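ok so dumb question maybe but i'm new to this and my supervisor (M.) told me to 'just get the structure for Aspartate aminotransferase family protein' and walked off. so i did the thing. is this what she meant?? sequence i used:
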Amino acid sequence: MTVFANTQQAQQSFWHPMAHPASVRQSAVTRIVSGEGVYVTDDKGQRMVDGVAGLWNVNLGHNRPEIKAAIMHQLDELAYYQSFDGVSHPRVEELSARLSAMLAPEQMARVMLSSGGSDAVETALKVSRQYWKLVGEPERTRFISLRQGYHGTHFGGTSINGSLVFRRNYEPLLPGCIQIDAPWPYRNPWNAGGEELGALCAAQLEREILAQGPDTVAAFIAEPVQGAGGVIVPPANFWPLVRAVCDKYGVLLIADEVVTGFGRSGNMFGCRGWGVSPDIICLAKGITSGYIPLGATLVNQRIAGAFEQNGNFTGALMHGYTYSGHPVACAAALVCLDLVEREQIPANAAKQGDYLLQALKPFEQKFAAVGEVRGKGLMLALDLVSDKASREPVDPMDGFANQIARVARAHGAMVRPVGTKIILSPPLTIQLPELDILVNALDTAFSQTA
Ligand code: PLP
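this is what came out, is it supposed to look like this??
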């Protein structure tokens, strides 16, 4: 094997996603070389609690022998076969049945597999469009989503993305994509909170559907708890009200559970935490705990039935990927789902998430730059402000969040700076001692930097 690590050629060839090439100073790159449980180690030997679980996905922790064994076993049996037009293999069928069973309370009927979250969202958008053609309402083409929402990087997902920063370099995008205000208690146009805010946002959705014309709206899509946009936890009435508005106008409801699926928000699925059954659910990340790429899009019988009843060519799903249902990914997912259930991962996320939130809340008083600490389960954000009273965010260009992350890493905590926020999303297996390491490292980072 040719080892390029640390050579100039390797450093210059690798194009960092989501970063300006010139902004990635090679001397400052955190290069992770190994992982064990909730810890990762960098190339300088620094061991850190993985406060971000890779990228919200290594939910079961690093280097789990059970997952590696399932992958090895599958490689021995069948490394790859396709699942297009009537060909299949056992793992893809087992995983589809398993996901349908797990989501039986939400009445999910069919599963379409892919390679990640962006694929899962793209599948959901295309299935929505096709559904409306199948039921004789082809003019229903528009999608409504939330500001601050993140739905991946394909053209569909980019078009419904709620942050301009992900959209503007790629315009023109899919027409007919509209964003409404997120139910964000800390920052919203009405300075409202609680149930009042949930009702205002649901009313805005209804107004937007009426403004567009209900017979032109295909679907509303949102994350049960917004993740990348800054861990925005909606009031408890928001999702039930959204379901009611969608039902009133026949609009499909898509839950993007790429982050929240499999326990991260403290419930097995985020929408279950809000007591709502969507029509389509997008999953990825925790489905394989990040060991192998995999995405899944599930639809309920309303949608599955429309495809089944249509006997001619239009009922065929003309969508799928070479790696839809990759056997090795399916094998990894099957064992991960066993572990999620056996180890009661959602309950641990709820318990440890409460502890972490309570431990970090005093930062709001202690540090001038911490406007709010918020979260649900093991997804948390520290909102960084230049002025507490006005809640004015820090200037994202001044590098403050990066500086906090750098100091935290030097003190044993891998945390993620995202614009004007510090994001925490550790493995869902984390326990108290490691949470304390995260809290202490962040305390030191703010004390030294603020
Ligand atoms: N949807 C949500 C809610 C996400 O957070 C992400 C990624 O973070 C995606 C979709 C895209 O997933 P991927 O990066 O696997 O394509």
